[in-house]
Amino acid sequence: MNHKNYEPTRESLNGHPLPQWFDEAKFGIFIHWGPYSVPGFAPVGNFADTLKTDYERAMLVYPYAEGYWNAIKDQTTPSARYHQAVYGSMPYQGFKPLFMDGVKQWDPIAWAKIFRNAGAKYVVIVSKHHDGFCLWPTKVTNPHEPHWFSERDIIGELADAVRSEGLRFGIYYSGGIDWTFRRRISRTFMDYSFSTPGGGYAVYADAQIRELISRYRPDILWNDICWPGNEDSLFRLFAYYYNAVPEGVVNDRWKHSTSANKLLSLKPVRAVMDMMIKRMIMNNPDIHSALAQPAISHSDFSTPEYTKYKEIQPGKWEMTRGIGHSFGYNRNEQDADYSSFETLLYDFIDALSKNGNLLLNVGPRGEDAQIPPEQLSRLSKFGDWLQRNGEAVYGTRPWIRAEAETETGETIRFTRKDNRLYLIILGRPNGITVKVKEFFCEGTANLLTDGSPVQLKREGEDMSLIFKHRLEHIFVPVIIIEDEHDGGMKRSPAVAEGADLAGSVG
Fold first, then answer.
1. Which CATH architecture does the domain made up of 403-497 adopt?
2. Which of 74, 353, 388, 489 has the least CB density, counted as fewest CB within 10 Å?
3. C-alpha torsion angle, residues 127, 128, 133, 139 (rounded to 10)
4. What is the pLDDT of residues 84-135, one digit of tens each?
5. What element of type H or E holds 403?
């Protein structure tokens, strides 16, 4: 296949099409694993609640265990007290040998099989998080911590393993924060967001990402926080990546350095901004949307965290979330602290119906490289559901309408593929008949799990689905409505008079 040559300009980069594989993959696995996984400690809770109730030190006590190094710098935090009790005066760097001992038990092939069996189509692993530790034997020397990397090629071994299972492979890199270059404490959201190191860090980060591209050819380049260089350096990097991996994708967390960043690095300016953000958070129930990434010059998809949308989005997006409240392993999270499989599946299907993917995080333990059983059980349930219902997921597109509701209160989401409409009921409906409010279409309908016919009966503005057997034992059933003429589905008069709520499958 011939691919165009990309130039380091906005016009050239914006000509990069979204690869079909990413749009159709729908489900990916995120992996946060590093030295922070050895202590595996953070307060249990919700990030949004932490920002509301303890903003002045939110980034020290938030529930993300991967922030452990920052948290233990303040001796009043729960993490610092835990560290003193368990590890005494050991510096954070002391976790490297403990982590590498755990890596000896790591089986990347076993992980890859787990992810494939869960129904995932791609995997993104953290190559370097905010602690600066590299999960590959980098040749780009860190001037402050020259041995702060894994001698075992974790990135390369996992890339080979997941690709051997037929999955795509992506790399996360923390471009905006590296605590080995800038060691001050981040207390507030502004401290955290504008703590990008200066000096030679931009050159270091650029060299490392280029090394990752040349060594592993990642299908996804997933940056975090921001980009430490200017726009020209970012465009050069994107052009280098697309020319090396034409069907690769980049996310949206690449806001490049500007004069405003330098201004916001000043403490008095950050203090004013903190006051404004705190007020905004208190007045906005949707905190994650309020703190969304700013628009940038180029990206292939956006990455809202723990976020839902009310409407179908025009651009491709990826819901990023943990199974629990932390991304890195947090030993304080018990089964009840993790989201239920039902919640995770509903979030996934909701994203699908609105042009999104789901990137679901696992946080393996540091001491033995094992994924906790609470996380494994939810992955297994994903695999079971997707094995039966994957036709309604993979390769689908949003329909012209994302949502509907049954007469008994279950919510419905729609996806489509060719001349097939998939009606997905979020729940476990009772009985043999389900009435969908303010919806009607014509076609041949079947229950996806067993192929049994479903009768479509118009009842005024609504439509009843009449099944061959009761549905109590089917969780989140999927109904296929197929239109042989690819466009012959009809609206009810009530719907036709209102918003664009129904229409042809195609």
1. Sandwich (2.60)
2. 74
3. 70
4. 999 999 999 999 999 999 999 999 999 999 999 999 999 999 999 999 999 9
5. strand 403-405
